[in-house]
Amino acid sequence: MVVTDESDMDRSFKLPMSTFVGGNEKTLPLKEIIKRLEDAYCRSIGVEFMFINSLEQCNWIRQKFESPGIMAMNQQDKRLLLARLTRSHGFEAFLARKFSSEKRFGLEGCEILIPAMKQVIDRSTSLGVESFVMGMPHRGRLNVLSNVCRKPLEHIFTQFAGLDTGDEGSGDVKYHLGTYQERLNRVTNKNIRLAIVANPSHLEAVDPVVQGKTRAEQFYHGDSEGNKVLSILLHGDAAFSGQGIVYETFHLSELPEYTTHGTIHVVVNNQIGFTTDPRMSRSSPYCTDVARVVNAPIFHVNADDPEAVMHVCNVAADWRHTFHKDVVIDLVCYRRNGHNEVDEPMFTQPLMYNRIRKLKPVIELYADKLISEGVVSAEETKEVRDRYEKILEEAFTAAKSETRVFNKHWIDSPWSGFFEGKDPLRATPTGVHEDTLTHICKRFASAPPNASDFVIHRGLQRILSSRMEMVKARTVDWAMGEAVAFGSLLKEGVHVRLSGQDVERGTFSHRHHVLHHQKVDKSQYNALANLYPDQAPYTVCNSSLSEYAVLGFELGFSMTNPNALVLWEAQFGDFNNTAQCIIDQFISSGQSKWIRQTGLVLLLPHGMEGMGPEHSSSRLERFLQMTSDDPDVLPAFSSDFAIRQLSDINWIVANCSTPGNLFHVLRRQIALPFRKPLIIMTPKSLLRHPEAKSSFDDMVEGTEFQRIIPEAGPAAKNEAGVKRLIFCSGKVYYDLAAARKEAGIEDSIAIARVEQIAPFPYDLIKQECDKYPDAELVWSQEEHKNMGAWSYIQPRIATALNHERHIVKCDKVANDSEGHESQSWYEYWFPWAFPTSSQTEASIPPKRETPIASDTRVLRYAGRPVSASPATGNKKTHTREVKQLLEDALAL
Question: Which range of residues forms the domain containing residue 785?
């Protein structure tokens, strides 16, 4: 249509079905049509939705923005909005006065964020949501903690006081911390739970963690549609477009085992990232363009129009409730100060900040608007402001009396009842009854019961047959050892979740937890999910081709329920480095910084198989470098030495060589009275190695995880004649054992396998060294010298052997509380270690002290030399390196 005359503006036109601007009217004058469309889309709100490939969804959005009068607010809601804006602005102003030289990453310029989040929560609560899991960067975090979560103001103010901590952990800066609060929502009169997940300065790293935590809450509450638990993610504009983890997390949103049934994203778009403006920080027109990949509608709104923001928040909450899909609110605002409060923004953005200096704060703009409308008076606005100021002052005064800050006040994932009533240094047994082993293995080796028409691949039929043969022989290989660990936990009511790329089949075609009908699409059978009628659920799910987001997701999942075994497997262990941020910032240091325990298990296929530099090394050395134990301090030996070490360290690093030990270490994750991450270097060639099998005898009741597997062959019977004691870990043991046998030197060389590398088994290492007093000590590894465990092992073995010490011996030690003899000897060292509280001087029976000289033997290295690359890509070179390694270790 072409308007040729001004009179055409008064002509009435029939409205098409594709618009809702008419309301109940079927025709409107052209000028009214244009006015209503401009009011909907050309004022404070811009809507991106035409890329959505659903007419139903597009029409739903049109109706929410085009319908006449749909944005109108009543006076009560306007007064509530003003009160919330007053609190948001007042909080930042108060901190600015009291702590003028402190960084707080305030919200000045986007104070509307607090009313916006509260509106999303109010609307969602009215629609049935009971729990909100939130993630956000540092900007505005303290304000959100205070005014959205209602965290006690005293706890926030004490973080500025520079006090010592009154409990465990190293803590973190105040604007990284999380919280968990349960409170009454006074607007809807419903109780709600609010959690803000702790986050480092690595912007957006928290996104998948929040999603995993949300998914876990939904799973354990039976919330299959996401009607009760909602995730809210806050973003900065530069990070939203610049961080790849945002894209990875969006792509989890529709995957069956990863969806949270819709997330509400809120972008605090202050149009600058640190000092970089959009011309340098992104290539797309809008920072929110990444959300288009999952057909999420995007609502841009002027943050200085509070009522428009409230409407957008209502629409976003309604969208998520209706369609269970992601939605983005883009709060177009500004940053009144620099990146932080002591930063000078005029250095780099002089024109922008000249304009910002002249802008009135949104609280003043909105208060003036409501006063002019007669909704409130100037006196009322002052009264609201003064009332909140008084609350702040009272909390500030109360905070002055505090002498400590407590990290426990900032826990974002409390485990109610988990620690109560437990002996903190006693684990439940990990062995199981043989009938359980047999039942699980038979099910794992069988086709679907009562499904004669389920067509199984011929290759899988052979695998199932070989599994059944192992059952008859009472043995398990790696896949069956893992399956029995999972199955026995499922029998005990423990949920098991295994996630990662290709985990259903296994990267190396060894697992096959999901059998596929060869002629019927989507017809599958999961044996471990069908072991017992009353078992816990088993979740095994192939993930997207992401390590960063998926590992973060599983971490979040594991934080929710301590009584679940959550595992992430890398397709190859080498690929864990693309998830390094999650490993460094959350897993290795999470308990220390944020008092966040997790029993998450990382399965990292590792081993030098001649497959090149990207399919060989899980970078064992990196995990060992980040362990929180001192190589120069020898812990006090006691009856609870092993579990005390586990309690004190930040994570556990293992390189198991037998399926039986894998079985025990996985079950131990649940048996422990606390939770620690477990890093396992899993094998590749050992998955089918004929020697890498375990008997049922290694897993039945009375057996346990072996931190070290000592020599058990001819050398063990010839202790005085052993010339060399080789310590090693993982797959290289089988190469060493085969070469030793071929050379005919099995009685003169002993090989001990270090299965748990961290925490380091000082006591068992010492026992092995004492057993062979005349043997040369060697550490052999397949990794290069500057990689693998060598740099971790070497100083610790030196510490174990070369300190002067006293040995305290006695024939019998008093029984413990359950009548078990705790041990037959104690050793402890001075001045480095002292008896534990349960092992006082008075409690040690009469003893005989014998000074013993230090063991002056030096540990020798046998393995590949240093290298910049983890492995060679040349098969011939690999073979030559293996030959040299074995000759060096065995002195052939």
Answer: 708-890
